[in-house]
């Protein structure tokens, strides 16, 4: 694609920041359809561009607090909130910092969840996929998911809810059982089949060999898990 010089006013595409994708939109629609946002204290744990945090603020959250380890994401999320005319407190740091600000009524997360092959293939993945720290999540894809499930009771107020989106490749059953083992009710409330994006295309063969994706798959299932604190 060629960009015409008349595009001066066009928004800059956040290639250094994870561009909102199917998982972002699936999480936003699950969040708004659950009807839990109006008046809620919301935390967006891996905010990236801030798209989910801004959607929560626009949907009537009482307050939205967002976290990301990437300084460019933090700046981008702040600018997005400003441009949307909503208030979001964006903090630079691990999602685990949210425990300092807890409890929340609603916690939303689109964490990194793609399993990483033993041989680093990051250089072969197109830049439009966003930075590797947005998707790389260790050999089983659970580098953030496991500690997040363990921390859910510390993040949520009584009766609070966590919504987390991830791929079928990062073990949906393990998310559900980890949350249930922590005394929470947990179920899949949304799912979507999507064609492989650039990261999955690069890793599909390895994922199948590793038994993390069904042989012959051409699409990936995204899911949103809802966990409710007692
Ligand atoms: C898949 S992107 C999601 C971005 C955005 N929430 C969305 O839905 O489009 C994951 C984000 O998590 C951030 N991240 C990775 N590890 C993190 C951690 N330990 N704590 C907080 N943020 C983290 C990355 O920088 C990236 O912006």
Automatic annotation (TrEMBL):
<dbReference type="Pfam" id="PF05175">
    <property type="entry name" value="MTS"/>
</dbReference>
<keyword id="KW-0808">Transferase</keyword>
<dbReference type="GO" id="GO:0003676">
    <property type="term" value="F:nucleic acid binding"/>
</dbReference>
<dbReference type="InterPro" id="IPR029063">
    <property type="entry name" value="SAM-dependent_MTases_sf"/>
</dbReference>
<dbReference type="GO" id="GO:0008276">
    <property type="term" value="F:protein methyltransferase activity"/>
</dbReference>
<dbReference type="GO" id="GO:0032259">
    <property type="term" value="P:methylation"/>
</dbReference>
<feature type="domain" description="Methyltransferase small">
    <location>
        <begin position="24"/>
        <end position="116"/>
    </location>
</feature>
<comment type="similarity">
    <text>Belongs to the eukaryotic/archaeal PrmC-related family.</text>
</comment>
<dbReference type="GO" id="GO:0035657">
    <property type="term" value="C:eRF1 methyltransferase complex"/>
</dbReference>
<keyword id="KW-0489">Methyltransferase</keyword>
<dbReference type="InterPro" id="IPR002052">
    <property type="entry name" value="DNA_methylase_N6_adenine_CS"/>
</dbReference>
<dbReference type="InterPro" id="IPR007848">
    <property type="entry name" value="Small_mtfrase_dom"/>
</dbReference>
<protein>
    <submittedName>
        <fullName>HemK-related putative methylase</fullName>
    </submittedName>
</protein>
<keyword id="KW-0949">S-adenosyl-L-methionine</keyword>
<dbReference type="GO" id="GO:0008757">
    <property type="term" value="F:S-adenosylmethionine-dependent methyltransferase activity"/>
</dbReference>
<dbReference type="InterPro" id="IPR052190">
    <property type="entry name" value="Euk-Arch_PrmC-MTase"/>
</dbReference>
<dbReference type="InterPro" id="IPR004557">
    <property type="entry name" value="PrmC-related"/>
</dbReference>
<dbReference type="GO" id="GO:0008170">
    <property type="term" value="F:N-methyltransferase activity"/>
</dbReference>
């Amino acid at each position: 694609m060629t960009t015409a010089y008349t595009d001066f006013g066009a928004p800059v595409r956040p290639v250094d920041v994870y561009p909102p994708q199917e998982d972002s939109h699936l999480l936003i629609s699950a969040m708004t359809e659950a009807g839990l946002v109006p008046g809620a204290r919301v935390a967006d744990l891996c905010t990236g561009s801030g798209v989910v945090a801004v959607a929560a603020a626009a949907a009537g959250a009482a307050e939205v607090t967002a976290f990301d380890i990437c300084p460019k994401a933090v700046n981008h999320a702040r600018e997005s909130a400003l441009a949307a005319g909503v208030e979001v407190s964006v903090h630079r740091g691990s999602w685990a910092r949210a425990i300092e600000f807890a409890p929340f009524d609603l916690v939303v997360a689109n964490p990194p969840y793609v399993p990483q092959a033993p041989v680093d293939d990051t250089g072969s993945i197109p830049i439009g996929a966003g930075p590797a720290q947005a998707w790389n999540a260790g050999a089983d894809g659970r580098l953030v998911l496991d500690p997040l499930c363990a921390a859910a009771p510390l993040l949520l107020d009584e009766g609070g809810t966590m919504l987390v989106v991830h791929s079928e490749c990062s073990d949906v059953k393990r998310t559900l059982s980890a949350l249930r083992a922590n005394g929470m009710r947990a179920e899949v409330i949304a799912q979507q089949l999507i064609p492989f994006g650039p990261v999955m295309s690069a890793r599909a063969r390895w994922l199948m060999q590793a038994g993390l994706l069904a042989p012959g798959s051409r699409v990936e299932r995204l899911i949103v898990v809802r966990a409710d604190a007692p």
